[in-house]
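Second opinion, please. Pick holes in both lines of this record:
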Amino acid sequence: MLKTNCASSSVAHATPATVHRRGCNEGHVAQETTRTGSNNNETPAPLTVLVVEDFEDTRALMRLELEQRGFRVIEATDGEQAVEMATRERPDIIIMDIGLPLIDGIEATRRIRGDNSMRDVLVVALTAHHETEYRAQALAAGCDAYLTKPVDFDWLIDLLGRLLP
């Protein structure tokens, strides 16, 4: 379960991030990392996160951290696979590495955002690049936020809580 207060300050965290489109009002609290099923008697399903990362060790660490925090995690290793899996699986959140084989994370995000049914999916760019140009490209492609590696998972969870509707 995720409980986070939107009013928490990002200044206190070491991980740089840019929040682009979505935000929240002071005092907003994201209640939990679950969505309800179609039947009210069903147990709520965990939010699905598509982790798009070409380095196996980084993917494994992200999977472990996110699953321990109650998310369902699916994985892609390149940009083409990310577009295919996003279209097929309809994740709630996509954590998109920028430097990917075949097509990069910027182009993969553009393609995902080109599908009208995927416009509301939360996309967080994740990269080792700190340069402003990468940040601008990611946000222009449709990413909702931009994070740099190494990942501070507490900060990432707080960010997701602020961005989720």
Summary: The longest strand covers residues 122-127. The mean pLDDT is 79. The longest helix spans residues 56-68.
